[in-house]
Amino acid sequence: MRYAHAVDEVRAAEAALMARLPEGTLMQRAAAGLAAVCAQLLGGLYGSRVLLLVGSGDNGGDALYAGARLARRGAHVTAALAAQKTHPEGLADFRAAGGRVLDYARLESLLSPGEGSAPSSAARRAFEGTDLVIDGLTGIGGRGALRGLYGALVRALPEEAAVVACDIPSGVDADTGEVADTAVRADVTVTFGTLKPGLLIDPGAAHAGVVELVDIGLTGLPEPAVIAPATADVRPPRPEAETDKYRRGVVGVIAGGARFTGAALLSVGAALRGGAGMVRFASAARVVALVDARWPETVTTVLPEAAPGDDTEPDLDAVGRVQAWVVGPGLGVDARGERLVKATLRSEVPVLVDADGLTVLAGLPAGVRRALLDRRAPTLLTPHAGELSRLLNVGRDQIEARRLVHVRAAAAGLGVTVLLKGSTTLVADPGGQVRANLTGTPWLATAGSGDVLSGLAGALLAQGVDAADAGAWAAHLHGLAARIAAAPRRGLAPAPITAEDVLAALPEAFAQLS
Ligand SMILES: NC(=O)C1=CN([C@@H]2O[C@H](COP(=O)(O)OP(=O)(O)OC[C@H]3O[C@@H](n4cnc5c(N)ncnc54)[C@H](O)[C@@H]3O)[C@@H](O)[C@H]2O)[C@H](O)CC1
Ligand SMILES: [K+]
């Protein structure tokens, strides 16, 4: 499991610890950890060329002390001072270790733009041959777009150099993972004490590369704001020897309609492969026929079409007993869809609402929606940014840029567990803790992939897994399956995949759980 704490919490824990330790101890611990990772990446230090990007705060101090350690072990280290004033003791130590300083005025003239906004040839020449860059421009004190020389410096970095970010890639918001404009793209981020949420959430996560945690002795941290399960933390129930199909859990899927049928097939397939003992499926006759043909192990029910104007609630008892419902994939957003969403939410078992089911919910008057979601059994909503945008009445771009803020707002506002799909899938409980998924891959951005996720998460709900774990574990397995499908053998470059391929790889993803 990886844990991330908000900046305010890190600062509070740091202050308590600093009060008990000699001045500078924590920075030395941080710098030692940073230097060790850099030394390992470089292999031999003698003759290697290291460039420090030094900002005005303690993040720059860490970089200077780490640079001094590398210089003492034979590296050629240059510190580019991107601020007029940088950490004085760190700079003095760096100079004493034989480090070379590119001061602010010299850096400014080097970075003065050449043609257009491209870095000048002088800057390119100055940084040529760098093996490793240590980014110490901003850490947890960074706010908004990189200002002054910072942005231009980042844009002038040589492409071939390895980049190690100190604490967090500069330009990434530590609390949210937002990137305002230019941000450092690191190969490795060496972070101190605990992870920061921005390292787990895109676009920040994509900028962080591999995240190495250095223990600096921070204690007394509160509950983490964000957690990211590792594969070993994903523990769906295993059937016991004397179990039977009913005890393993029955999942009911209500999907497909007049327009769409494929979503129902994918969702049912994933529910079957998600470990439940049985899948019941209910829909219109045409969809039921297709499910019967493709997944004969499913127990199906044709739901009679209501006459126009008849809004009596569908009889879900006719479908049979289930331990969880999945409602929405390909359902349609008409009166029929609305009646089915309402009926499942009025049941007393866990309900997962996805896709058209979410659009139906978003279209209901707020009071009706609130009453429907005010249930005793768990409720899991699985929107992508567009669907959440309709539920929250917030622009889709806003949601994509500030995923953490909005998934939390949705869970708190609607009083249910919300799984926000996307480049980093996040699952928020109304209580506030967020789970981030680390197995996602851009290959999953393909039609039908969400339908697979809904069936899988529904199967976990039916097995008694709570809503937040069901969502997070389903996202984890879904990502693993996509990776397996895209590159089935080690060393193969990933190839484009379909949702069917993800579905087919689910058993192997389960097999990777210890
Ligand atoms: N937390 C710990 O336990 C430890 C943290 N260490 C390191 O210290 C930094 C945090 O240092 P701080 O001085 O508070 O902030 P920063 O260095 O991140 O930056 C503040 C500095 O930067 C300027 N600034 C902020 N945003 C921008 C911007 N967008 N563009 C330009 N300039 C910006 C701001 O004005 C300030 O002057 C933490 O991350 C660790 O690396 C310790 O060394 C170990 C213990
Ligand atoms: K940094």
Going across the biggest sheet, name each strand in turn. 1-9-18-17-16-15-14-13-10-11-12
- CATH architectural category of the largest domain: 3-Layer(aba) Sandwich
Helix content: 25-40%
The class by helix and strand makeup works out as alpha/beta
- Contiguous low-pLDDT stretches (5 residues minimum) are none
User: CATH homologous superfamily of the largest domain, by name?
Assistant: Ribokinase
Distance between the termini: 14 Å
Average pLDDT figure: 94
Number of helices: 19
What is the CATH fold-level name of the largest domain? Answer: UDP-N-acetylmuramoyl-L-alanine:D-glutamate ligase
Summarize the model shown.
By secondary structure, the protein is of the alpha/beta class. Helix content is 39%, strand content 15%. It folds into 2 domains: 2-225, YjeF N-terminal domain (Rossmann fold), CATH 3.40.50.10260; 247-306 and 315-511, Ribokinase (UDP-N-acetylmuramoyl-L-alanine:D-glutamate ligase, 3-Layer(aba) Sandwich), CATH 3.40.1190.
